[in-house]
Amino acid sequence: LIGFQFIVSIRFTPAYPDDVLPWVARITATYDPLPAGASPTERLATNQAGWDSVYYLTIATEGYAATTYGAVDLPDGETLSVNYAFYPFYPFSMAFLAAFVKVLAFTPWNAAVIAGVIVSLLGALGGALAIFDLALADGDEADASRAAFYLLIFPVAFFMAQVYTEGLFIGLAFGSLALARRRRFLWASVLAALAVLTRATGILLVIPLALYLLDDFREHPADGILRGLYVLPPLAALIIWWVAFGSEFSVVQAEFFGRGTLDLPAAWEQWQVAFRAIGAGENPQAVFYYLTEIAFVVAALAACALTFRQYPYPAVFGLAVILIAVTSGPVQSFPRYMLAVPGLYLLLARWGRSPLFDRAWSLASVLLLAFFTMLFTLDYWVG
C-alpha cells in the first residue's frame, strides 16, 4: 500500500482545489503538488500524513499547546490549540517511537511520520488477528481468515497505514472484544482503557465488556462480583483523560469542528444539508461523497443487524459506534468511523463462503481501496 502511494505521488499531478465540500475547497485552493524531485522521505511525510495527521504530528513533536495548525479564540482573549480535539495515546506512542527513529538522522517531523505509520501498522495487524479470533465464535478457520482478509482490503482500510488513529484503535478495540470473549478480562480491560485514550468511541467498549462479565457472573456467581471490577480501568482512563483534556476537547470540538456527542438537532440539520446536496445534483463530487457516506452507514447498520444473533456483543459495540458517529454533527468521515464496526467483516466472512461472492467482493473492495488511497495520497478529501 505504501509503495502504491509512492507511485501515485510520482505519476499523478493533481488539480486543486478539491471541490467535494466548500471547506475542503477553501483549504486545498492554496495547495501545490509535491515537486517531481521530492525525496522518498519527503514523499512518505506527505503521502502518509494528510488532513488530521498534522495534529497528531504536532502533538508528537511540539506538544498539545502548539498552535501551528489552528487555535480557538476564547472569551478571555486567550487561544486554545486545535490539538486538544485529539486523544493522547496515539501521538504519545508516536513520540516515544520517534525518539528511536531519529537516531537514523531523520528530522523530528519525518521521524514522527515513520513512527506513526509503524504504530498504525502494528495496530492493524493486531486488529486482523483479533477479528480472526472473533470470527471463530461462529465459524471455522476459513471464515476467520476471510474476516481478517476483508478487514485489510476494506475500501477505506488504507487509513490503518497512515498517520491516523484507525489502525491503533481497531487493534485495541477488536483485541479487547476478542479477549473478553475468551474471558481474559484483565487484558480486555487494559486494551479497552488504552482505546479510551485513543478515540472518543473507546469508552463504548465498556458495554460489551460489561455484557461478557455478566455472562461470566451467571456461570460463576461466586467470583462474579470481583470480576465486575474489570470495568473500572476504562472508566478510570476516561476520568483521567477528562480531568487532563476534557474541557479543552469539548470547546475545540464544538467551536472548530462543529461536533458534539449525541447532538441530535445539529446532526439532523447536517443530514438535511447532505440530502439537499444530493437532491440538487449541482456538484457531482459532493453527490458522490454524500452517497458514499450514507452507503457505509447503511452497510454497517445492516451488518450489525445480520450478525447480532451470532455475535451479539460485538454487534452492540458496532451499533454504539454508529450511533455516536451519525449524531455527532457534520456528515463527514463516516466510512472511516465505520471501520471500527466488527460486524462488517464478520458478515462478509460468512457471505464469502460463496466463491462467487468472495471473488466479486474482493475485486470491488480492492478497486475501491485503490481509488480512495489515491485520493488521500493526492491530498483530496476522503474522510
Structure description:
By secondary structure, this protein is mostly helical. The protein has one domain (2-377). The protein is 66% helix and 2% strand. It is built from 18 helices and 2 strands. It has helices at residues 2-11, 22-28, 40-47, 53-62, 89-101, 108-135, 141-152, 166-181, 185-196, 206-219, 224-227, 232-255, 264-280, 284-307, 312-326, 334-338, 343-351, 355-377, and strands spanning 71-73, 79-81. Strands 1-2 form a two-stranded antiparallel ribbon. Helix 6 packs antiparallel against helix 7 (141-152), helix 6 runs parallel beside helix 8 and helix 10 packs antiparallel against helix 15. The chain is globular and about 65 Å long.
What's the SSE blueprint?
Elements: H1 2-11, H2 22-28, H3 40-47, H4 53-62, E1 71-73, E2 79-81, H5 89-101, H6 108-135, H7 141-152, H8 166-181, H9 185-196, H10 206-219, H11 224-227, H12 232-255, H13 264-280, H14 284-307, H15 312-326, H16 334-338, H17 343-351, H18 355-377
Antiparallel strand pairs: 1-2
Helix pairs in contact: 1-3, 1-18, 3-6, 4-5, 4-6, 5-6, 6-7, 6-8, 7-17, 8-9, 8-10, 9-12, 10-15, 13-14, 14-15, 14-17
